[in-house]
């Protein structure tokens, strides 16, 4: 269920993450606090090294997606 760039499509992992968050009734505004739990390896390093916790959830996941998969993916 964790994304690290090498183990599958980011959007698929993001759908799983959002499904789990909704199942536990996590408010959307708290998704950014839980977001790093779906990351591992290089993706998690990028999250922490670029201080993505200061971004909105949408901005953070777009930054991860664009960095690893880019528009041509």
Strand and helix map with partners:
Blueprint: H1 10-23, H2 31-34, H3 41-49, H4 57-68
Describe the structure.
The chain is mainly alpha-helical. It has one domain (10-68). It is built from four helices and no strands. The protein has helices at 10-23, 31-34, 41-49, 57-68. It is globular and about 30 Å long.
Keyword list:
73 residues, mainly alpha, 0% strand
Give a quick precis of the structure.
This protein is an all-alpha fold and 73 residues long. The protein contains 4 helices and no strands.
β content, as a range?
Answer: under 5%
Q: Can you count the helices?
A: 4
Counting structural domains, the number is 1
Largest sheet: none
Distance linking N and C termini:
20 Å
- In total, how many beta strands? 0
**Gyration radius, rounded:** 11 Å
Main structural class: mainly alpha
N-to-C series of helices and strands: HHHH
Low-confidence stretches: none
Return the average pLDDT rounded to an integer: 93
Shape: globular
Helical coverage, percent range: 40-55%
């Amino acid at each position: 269920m964790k994304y690290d760039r090498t183990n599958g499509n980011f959007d698929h992992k993001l759908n799983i993450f959002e499904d789990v968050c909704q199942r536990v009734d996590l408010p959307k505004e708290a998704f950014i606090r839980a977001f790093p739990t779906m990351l591992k390896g290089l993706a998690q390093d990028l999250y922490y090294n670029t201080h993505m916790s200061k971004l909105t959830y949408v901005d953070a996941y777009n930054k991860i997606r664009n960095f690893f998969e880019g528009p041509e993916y």
